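Q: What does the assembled structure look like for these inputs?
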Amino acid sequence: MSENRENVADRARRIYEERLRATLEESHMDEFVAIEPISGEYFLADTLSEAIGASRRKYPDRLAHALRVGHKAAIHFKFQIR
Amino acid sequence: MRGSIDADGRALLRVGIAAERATQPVAIDAWIDTGFTGDLVLPQPIIDRLAPRQSGTVDAILADGSQIEVKTFTCFVNWFGEERRLEVVANDGDYPFLGVGLLLGLELRANYHTMALSLTSPSPSAPGAGPRAVTVASRPSLAAGRPLAGATCSQGSFGSSGVLPFSSVTG
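A:
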């Protein structure tokens, strides 16, 4: 991998907050978005797998961080604890 | 596709999963969790066994409301007769969980009288009917100053047999 995992998430969250939140929350509520922070590109989809998968197809060696538009987190666990 | 309900009332579905395309899958019994908004969660020991490539990270909210960051890994499942790429979430729990991302477009029936469970493709608009355009879009960031250039990605059709080849699955 070409980048540090923590940096990927932090940078992706910053890109979302600074550049994407206002636009995406107007027209893409509830969709999953994977952000590849080196390029700054983002990938919208109906499922987590489709969003991250789209990023991986374009950038096979780069990690992406996924969020869900309009939500605190992309996924919710009903049962299990970490 | 047929699953089962165990003595504790858990709805279970057997899934064949592999870290690479066209490789022998490992069979897991996943607990169907309609409160999980992703596709599949695997305990870390199963991730270690499969050794898939990490694809990214994702923020998650636990049942107690706390927020954590978890890793995602690219895996491949035999889903209604076709290989489907998934971004699997790893955690430190004890059970594999199958979430609503894999259930979309399908009909899940759980009979707590007979303890039988089935997952079927109920209508022509369901995945078994053919290719479905999904709203995957690749777009430059707004800060990059480039025009938005949407791209679509076609999700392949799924077979209608609905039965995983359990006999060919090891694990």
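Helices of chain A lie at 5-27, 48-58.
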